[in-house]
Amino acid sequence: MRAHYFQHVPFEGLGSIESWLDSNGYELTSTRFFESADLPDPKAIDLLVVMGGPMSVNDEDKFPWLALEKQFVREVIDSGKPVLGICLGAQIIANAMGAKVFQNHTKEIGWFPIHAVAPVDGSIYSFPPSETVFHWHGETFDLPPGAIRLAKSEGCENQAFQLGMRVIGLQFHLETTPKSASEIVSNCRDELVPAKYVQTEEEILSASPDRYKLINDLMGSVLSFLQLKDG
């Protein structure tokens, strides 16, 4: 099996997703848009993962590859293969499938709870009723046509969605490790302007190892769900 991932900036990589893919026997390839916009043959991949980044999906004038990326994502989704989007990646999926992406009324940066909203149904991924996860976003999205909302938070109504059986978009970051949290803080600390849903650098980086393990395990659960549905 071959997993391909899209990376938009050097400091937002796969995090815990990489070890999950490795332990589940995936060959791993990537497109790093900050280096090159070379895309694989969509027929040659079995799973697509679209990572985060500080740009907006609406910035096609600044980043022309965004249009190519959206077209590729739409093609993979239409082919019925599993696709996972993280933060910007979820917004790209939503936009590629016909939904608007726009500024949220507030930024969410740091460790804040999400709340499950989807009905318990074997065909729909179920989050725990409430779980504290890692956020770093200022935009949000409408749900694409046919999508089911999976989670919300106090600061953002649409935190996660599922489209069909094989596509999940997450506004938040379950793949975050201590190393990746440190990297995003180092590169984006100018966004840490005091607000209701914006934590300080110290608060963000003081999360316990158990907190990271919990969200990484949840990330593995989402990937296993997509893998099972693919099988």
Give a verbal description of the structure:
The protein is an alpha/beta fold and 231 residues long. The chain has one domain (2-230): Rossmann fold (3-Layer(aba) Sandwich). The chain is built from six helices and nine strands; from the N terminus they run E-H-E-E-H-E-H-E-E-E-E-E-H-H-H. The chain has a nine-stranded mixed β-sheet with strand order 2-1-3-4-9-8-7-5-6, with helices on both faces. Helix 2 (65-78) packs across helix 3 (88-96). The longest helix has 22 residues, at 209-230. The model has no long low-confidence stretch (mean pLDDT 96).
In short:
The protein has 231 residues and is an alpha/beta fold.
Q: Catalogue the unreliable spans.
A: none
> Helix count, per DSSP?
6
Largest sheet: 9 strands, mixed
The residue-averaged pLDDT reads 96
Approximate strand percentage: 25-35%
Radius of gyration: 16 Å
Taking strands numbered 1, 2, ... along the chain, how are they ordered across the largest sheet?
2-1-3-4-9-8-7-5-6
**CATH architecture assignment:** 3-Layer(aba) Sandwich
Classified by CATH, the class is: Alpha Beta
Class by alpha and beta content: alpha/beta
Count the strands? 9
Order of helices and strands: EHEEHEHEEEEEHHH
- Binned, the helix content reads 25-40%
CATH fourth-tier homologous superfamily: Class I glutamine amidotransferase (GATase) domain
Overall geometric form: globular
**Span between termini:** 12 Å
How many separate structural domains? 1
